[in-house]
Amino acid sequence: MPLTRQRKKEAVQELEQLIDSQKSMVFVNYRGLKAQEVFGLRQKLDEKQAKFKVVKKTLANIAFKNKGIEFKKDQYDDQFAIVFGYEDEIAPARILFESQKYLKTLEMLGGYLEKDYLDGNQVLALAQLPSRNELIAKLMYLLNYPMSGLVNVLSGNIKGLVYAINAISKK
Asked: Residue 79: is its pLDDT beyond 70?
């Protein structure tokens, strides 16, 4: 059923609001997925404060143009989905990447990080990055490693002295 002019305006306004509040967007080809699979994907995305929105290419083009963001509408099918990330910029791409393992027809087409366009390969690379917490843990390990090594070296002399005194006391 075709959308009325008023409904199209409302859809464009809703898209503009979503674009304003997002930190990242991933364009997805979801054709071939069953309704139950899309529902499961939406639940996973909801847990990470991300939203899966099916949009028409022409309406998305209008919304992006109104926001001053370049949108290459010729690269996408008439109907595709946009996944908006609100909390974590990388979470939507990571969830979609993990979901591609069992949803074979799901395809990441591209997206935006803030207002910078990323093609499908760049979104894929972004999805494979370690999380922020993992990077912080690795950094803390690297900062702590030289100090722990120094402590082990300095305590080695004391341990040797203790072992020598212990051996002498047993004689």
From this structure: no
* CATH 3.30.1330.10 applies to domain 5-127: no
How many whole angstroms separate alpha carbon 163 and alpha carbon 148? 22
Structure confidence by residue, pLDDT tens digits, 30-74: 888 888 988 999 999 999 888 898 888 888 888 888 888 888 777
Q: Which residues contact 19 (CB under 8 A, 6 or more apart)?
A: 25, 63, 64, 67, 69, 84
| CA–CA gap between residue 171 and residue 169 (Å, rounded) | 6
What residues does 96 pair with on adjacent strands? none
| Cα-based distances in Å from 71 to 11, 68, 125, 135 | 17, 9, 21, 32
Asked if residue 3 lies in contact with residue 62, where contact means CB atoms within 8 angstroms, the answer is no
Query: Using CA atoms, how far apart are residues 27 and 46, in angstroms rounded to an integer?
Result: 17
Query: Does the pLDDT value for residue 171 go beyond 80?
Result: no
Q: E strands of the chain, at which residues? A: 24-29, 50-56, 79-85, 107-113, 116-119
Please report where in the chains the tokens 């996408």 appear, as a residue: 76
Could you identify the residue written with the tokens 């006391």? Answer: 169
3-state secondary structure of 54: strand
Predicted model pTM: 0.73
